[in-house]
Request: fold
Amino acid sequence: MSEKTLTRMDLSEAVFREVGLSRNESAQLVESMLQHMSDALVRGEQVKISSFGTFSVRDKSARVGRNPKTGEEVPIQPRRVLTFRPSHLMKDRVADGNRS
Amino acid sequence: MIRSELIQKIADENPHLYQRDVERIVNTVFEEVTNAMARGDRVELRGFGAFSVKKRDARVGRNPRTGETVHVEEKHVPFFKTGKLLRDRLNGKA
Reply:
């Protein structure tokens, strides 16, 4: 496995190559995509991208946690967590691409 | 929100772009993330989250219907970890 890490820069570079926009505008478009997705999730909406996957927000109720180092009990407040469920297409492509 | 709604929002904000170019832009970004993971790479989007690939070891599984044991091969699965800023925003902290 190559184990490279891509960032926003790599995504905007791909947009720059794909469409004839400036690097600057490509970067802004990537940013605005992430912003719209984040905003929808914060509003509690699901973000469903066909053939990519689904981001959904789930409510977790309060529970008593434990500090694994000290064994001390700590209350964990109710919170909202984000889960991502990859599409079948993504799962297949990731499985096929990384087969040894 | 679905893919077409995301495309529409971006198109509305960028009236100087053709709708079909906005479609290509949005599709390119998702495609790039999937391609990266198919190569075994990570995609780290600060504030939003990080996509990575996790290895699942081979195991002996069981067909839940018949109870028959089956060998499940080692495989790689996509994984997403929410970024700190988004996690905080979901909980009204940012």
